[in-house]
TrEMBL record:
Plastid in keyword set: no
Family: Belongs to the class I-like SAM-binding methyltransferase superfamily. METTL21 family. EFM6 subfamily.
UniProt-listed Enzyme Commission number(s): 2.1.1.-
One term under GO cellular component: cytosol
GO biological process: one example: methylation
Alphabetic keyword roster: Cytoplasm, Methyltransferase, S-adenosyl-L-methionine, Transferase
Highest classification ranks of the organism: Eukaryota, Fungi, Dikarya, Ascomycota, Pezizomycotina
Location(s), subcellular: Cytoplasm
Pfam families per UniProt: Methyltransf_16
Protein name: Protein-lysine N-methyltransferase EFM6
Binding site for S-adenosyl-L-methionine: 65, 91-93, 124, 153, 174
Gene: EFM6
A GO term, aspect molecular function: protein-lysine N-methyltransferase activity
Main location, first listed in the record: cytoplasm
Purpose: S-adenosyl-L-methionine-dependent protein-lysine N-methyltransferase that methylates elongation factor 1-alpha.
Amino acid sequence: MRPTAPATESLPSSPEYDPLSIGEDLVPIRLAKAAGQTSLDFSGLLHPPLLLHEDLKEGCGGQLWPAGMVLAKYILKNLDLVRGKVILELGAGGGLVGLAVAIALRSSKEMLGSGLSPPVMITDLPVLLPLQQKNIEINQLPTTSIISCELSWGPSLPSSLPELYHTPEVVLAADCVYFEPAFPMLLETLSNLLEAPSGKSDGEIGAARMDPVCFFCMKKRRKADMRFIATLKKKFTVHDIDARQEIDEEGGGIFLYRVSRRG
């Protein structure tokens, strides 16, 4: 749900600067959590519940975090925001938000008999893809519902990412504001994903593509986090979302935004 230590590979290394030595001022210390499986129904919003395997061996992205819970609950309560859309989750970690959305959309299709929609795409660094795949499998989700792909943040989108997801209609991002040196790369990736769509139809999906929007949820931990939001507001159109009920359930300091490109 955020870049882990491999995101520092592009940073210079020297005797004075060790990119893998991260002080508490950059990343707050958190008690280790044993690997295990959690069942989540998001306060009764999700049927069947999401089964999430959490494992920190490849970094802190391997467990659920409060902003991910808030974003998932908000989308589950407002499923029409994402129904039938091309959806991509950034920094998905184990896939909490994307998996919850995929389960809800699949259940909705079965109940309403709604038409075709593309699978939810969950992305992160390569080390977290096996955990994402494990969570897809334990929830018995087919590739028509959800798929996983590497997406390291930076100036360009990887060629391994299917073309359909280069201009998603909905970007989901939870707990991505965490490792300060990666903030510029996150902004570059958001700029790429929120570019205007071509306007052409996409085969079986059919309808013309809508302008992309990002639902961006974060927990404030340091002053640098709010500086990131100030920069985000300079580059994009950013609206606060009132999600007080979801936020109160997860604790304070969580912010939810709707982000789109400037007209």
